[in-house]
Amino acid sequence: MATRIEKDSMGEMSVPANVYYGAQTARAVQNFPISGLRPHPTFVWATVIIKKCAAKANMNTGRLAAEIGSAIVTAADEVLAGGFAEHFVVDPFQAGAGTSHNMNVNEVLANRALELLGFKCGDFSTLHPNDHVNMAQSTNDVVPTAIRLASLEMLDPLLEELERLEFSLTDKAKEFNHILKSGRTHLQDAVPIRMGQEFGAYSAAIRKNREGLEACIPSLLELGIGGTAVGTGLNAEPAYIKSMVEELSVATGFPLVSSTDLFEAMQNMDPFLALSAALRRTAVNLGRISNDLRLLASGPRTGFDEIRLPPIQPGSSIMPGKINPSMAEMTNMVCFQVMGCDQAIMLASQAGQLELNVMMPLISWNLTFSMEILKNCVQKFTESCISGIVVNESRCRRYLEDSLGLVTVLAPYIGYNASAAIAKESVASGRSIREIVLEQKLMAEEELDEIMRPEHLTSPGLPKE
């Protein structure tokens, strides 16, 4: 492989001739061949946006020459348009704080800007990754700002997919609202419920999860950019900090503000911890709903078979005709992964020491990965599962008529103990609750029919009120 020699503060380093990164990135590639993963594209986008806006802010203050700053801005725009993606190569499991990732971006932009100015890659005497692309910045304020921007950028499409899921569940709640079925608690017979009420509860849970995610946005809008190394703002003029937040707001479309405490914004990972926790809560509910759907669709001959999920692929390599709840199973797996990512983020967030949390690369990767897979999962779960669910009404009716839970409606009229005795007799004899009540003359047939009318069984109050 053809190579070129680049230099950093440690000396010379051989770099592949066809890449735009430089010596520090090459060292990181050599030092951290850990996972085979690369930074999430949205995290790269966020870091490049910061570099572009920093160049503009530094030109606004007069600190950065217009020719050099404009070349950096143009190089950043090329990356933001989709170019040079293959040159962002640092493994997420890297040196603390994210210096390797920050320098990867600095070097790519510096080398491309040099080309635009007519110089060769690595000729940093004119335009330098640290002196110019990283001007008035530190990894320590760039990376937490990039995590914020990436999170905000990825939240919008996730929230849209959750809203679509919520509406789809609401539609099913309306469609199934007339269908009576047996409720179940402890996986045992319980009082009747409408299928629409079950799906309405699912919709309400997703709505609350969506609102929980939205509540995380205000803290993500508070930036610590300009705090540089430890929050003091060393080497960053107040005019730069003000201009930087303004430029970032224009570039991203987010109503960003400067944190009132740049030290806290650098040290404290609470905004990411809160977002991760909200993602975890969403995953818990999605997983719970998926579990319910798998149970309700089990069978079809030896399970509940109360609903039918859309068949999307053969379910077995050996059993012909078998169809599995594949989308619900996929959703469970994604939810487990998001829960695991949240655990990693929690541990990384508490691992900060003094002025810096060096675990930010781990936080960034797990947060962006969680949002990516959750968004994709919710989209497919809605389209390929929820929207196509149908109900087996005859099975629901049969279970309802056989359910011991029906005896509960009698308790206010004949007492708990008498009702329990009827339930035991029904289990022992196999006869229905209705049959036993009439046989024992515990209630007149007209009264029993009135009490057990379907509209009374799933609404508040006593049927005879």
Report what the structure shows.
A hairpin with a 2-residue loop joins strand 3 (180-185) and strand 4. The protein has helices at residues 23-31, 41-60, 66-80, 99-116, 129-133, 139-175, 195-214, 217-220, 238-252, 262-267, 270-296, 326-350, 360-384, 393-402, 411-414, 416-429, 433-439, 445-451, 454-457; strands spanning 3-8, 11-16, 180-185, 188-194, 222-223, 257-258, 307-308, 390-391. The chain is mostly helical. The protein is built from 19 helices and eight strands. It is 58% helix and 7% strand. The mean pLDDT is 96. The strands form four sheets. Strands 1-2 form a two-stranded antiparallel ribbon. A two-stranded antiparallel ribbon has the order 3-4. The protein folds into three domains: 17-135, Fumarase/aspartase (N-terminal domain) (Fumarase C, Chain B, domain 1, Orthogonal Bundle), CATH 1.10.275.10; 157-237 and 255-392, Fumarase C, Chain A, domain 2 (Up-down Bundle); 403-457, Ribonucleotide Reductase Protein R1, domain 1, CATH 1.10.40.30. It is elongated and about 100 Å long.
